[in-house]
Write a structure and sequence with these properties.
The structure is a single chain. The protein is of the alpha+beta class and 194 residues long. The protein has one domain: Protein Transport Mog1p, Chain A. Helices cover 19% and strands 34% of the residues. The chain has an eight-stranded antiparallel β-sheet, sandwiched between helices. The chain has a three-stranded antiparallel β-sheet with strand order 2-3-11.
Length: 194
């Protein structure tokens, strides 16, 4: 998504010792900040800007998971038990019209359809139907499906200042343990608009 280019700048942060995926909630002491975006992550998690891509933040429960997630992007190869990670894209409202097929009044489901279309063009045909929900106080869409041996979870939130989209992966059957942590991380995001 080239329209996210203004959202972040290059930075890397790693935070202390790693708990099992999905067993820890972010605390105020583990903050990743770059290019006006702030994200709180659990102890031990690794967070960095997407390589060569502004506006994308990669996250994983530890460095081996980060390496596995980054191999074969946008869809990683088979992950090992307990590995969890993915990417978060942030698109400020003012930039939505720059994305082909989206308008300023796009719903989270509209944005989800855009992401699914992008994954399809990368060779991943997701067949699940998105559901709507609320994350924090914001409307959101959720899609869970399978890609090869991994489960994939896509969450899209329409926040005050823009859209937050997370694409997360775990070994098949392990998303339920990690999703609460991911949702807490997404609720922690702040975007500086000046």
């Amino acid at each position: 998504m080239s329209a996210t280019a203004a959202a972040t700048t290059s930075a890397t942060a790693a935070v202390t010792t790693a708990p099992s995926a999905g067993t820890s909630s972010p605390t105020a002491g583990n903050v990743f900040s770059a290019g006006g975006v702030t994200l709180t992550v659990p102890d031990g998690w690794v967070v960095q800007n997407g390589q060569g891509t502004s506006g994308v933040i990669n996250f994983a429960d530890d460095q081996p998971s980060m390496t596995a997630i980054q191999t074969g992007q946008p869809i990683p190869g088979p992950l090992s038990k307990g590995q969890f990670g993915g990417s978060i894209s942030i698109l400020p409202t003012a930039m939505v019209s720059e994305v082909p097929g989206l308008t300023a009044d796009a719903t989270p489901v509209d944005f989800m359809a855009f992401l699914v279309k992008q994954l399809k063009s990368a060779g991943q045909a997701l067949t699940a139907v998105p559901t709507t929900l609320t994350i924090g106080a914001y409307p959101a869409a959720r899609l869970q499906d399978k890609t090869g041996q991994n489960s994939v979870l896509i969450l899209v939130i329409k926040a005050d200042q823009g859209y937050i989209a997370a694409l997360a992966f775990s070994p098949d059957g392990e998303l339920a343990n990690a999703e609460p942590t991911l949702q807490t991380m997404l609720k922690s995001i702040t975007l500086k608009t000046s």
